[in-house]
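User: I'm writing a tutorial on reading structure tokens. Could you give me a worked example: one chain, its sequence, then its tokens, then a sentence or two explaining what the tokens reveal?
Assistant: Sure. Here is the example chain.
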Amino acid sequence: MTQITPEYYKVLEELQAIDFVIIELTLYLDTHPGDQDAIQQYNLCIQQRKKIKKEFEKQFGALTHFGYSYSQYPWDWKEAPWPWQV
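And here are its predicted structure tokens:
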């Protein structure tokens, strides 16, 4: 198993935090679809999530597969740990 660095946990925690905010904003917008400020915040969070995900995958490998993440060479999906294993 690959050694897990403190940076791995830091970036993964950032990703989990932004995912939480996105889920909460989604639930809020389901009942307040006309809240323009919330929509802007949601869109900013989506941009931030994409940036964090890209940073994570650049440093540590794919978060998901089945076409949602690019692969490095050589194919490294089988390398542990996977995000749900930590």
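What the tokens reveal: The two ends are 11 Å apart (CA to CA). The helical segments are 6-31, 36-60.
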